[in-house]
Amino acid sequence: MIPPALRAEARRALALSDAALLAECQVDVFVGTGPGGQHRNKTESAVRLHHPRTGTVVTATERRSQLQNRGAALERLRERLEQLAREPKPRRATRPTRGSQERRLEAKRHAAKRKSERRGDW
User: Fold this and answer.
1) pTM score > 0.70 for this model?
2) Region of residue 69 (left: phi > 0; alpha: psi -120 to 50; beta: else)
3) Is 32 within 8 Å of 40 (Cβ atoms)?
4) SS3 sequence, the chain?
5) What is the pLDDT of residues 71-113, one digit of tens each?
6) CA-to-CA distance for 49 and 60, rounded, in angstroms?
7) CA-CA distance, 47 to 73, in Å (whole number)?
8) d(CA 111, CA 119)
9) Which residues contact 59 (CB under 8 A, 6 or more apart)?
10) CA gyration radius for the chain?
11) Nearest CA-CA partner of 32 in 21, 40, 24, 22
12) CA 53, CA 100: separation in Å to the nearest integer?
């Protein structure tokens, strides 16, 4: 269960502009591995965003450009914050209808009858 204070902090952060949200984050750039050639393997184009107020960390390494990766990481951060801010719908207890109870009991009686007929008289 997500604490209400964390949920409120996520809502507050979602209301910020991209520049303000990025200013709140710790931005780490590092060398991303994988396909993309020398440009990707030798430059610090991968981006990791850490939002300390919510403890959310996202990374983007799929592009060769640090600017594009920063934009992708910011989108992912907003998605995570939306998940944190989402208020779960309260569950309401329901009771089975009379018809469903009767169908279930009839199915049980039918199965019991089949089993008893299978036994036979020894």
Assistant:
1) yes
2) alpha
3) yes
4) CCCHHHHHHHHHHHCCCHHHHHHHCEEEEECCCCCCHHHHHHCCCEEEEEECCCCEEEEECCCCCHHHHHHHHHHHHHHHHHHHHCCCCCCCCCCCCHHHHHHHHHHHHHHHHHHHHHHCCC
5) 999 999 999 999 999 998 999 999 999 999 999 999 999 999 9
6) 9
7) 7
8) 13
9) 46, 47, 48, 49, 73
10) 28
11) 40
12) 49
Q: Which domains does the chain have, with CATH numbers?
A: 4-85 (3.30.160.20)
Map tokens 């952060």 to a residue.
Answer: 13
58, 36 Cβ separation under 8 angstroms: no
Digit-coded pLDDT (tens) for 30-65:
998 777 777 777 888 899 999 999 999 999 998 888
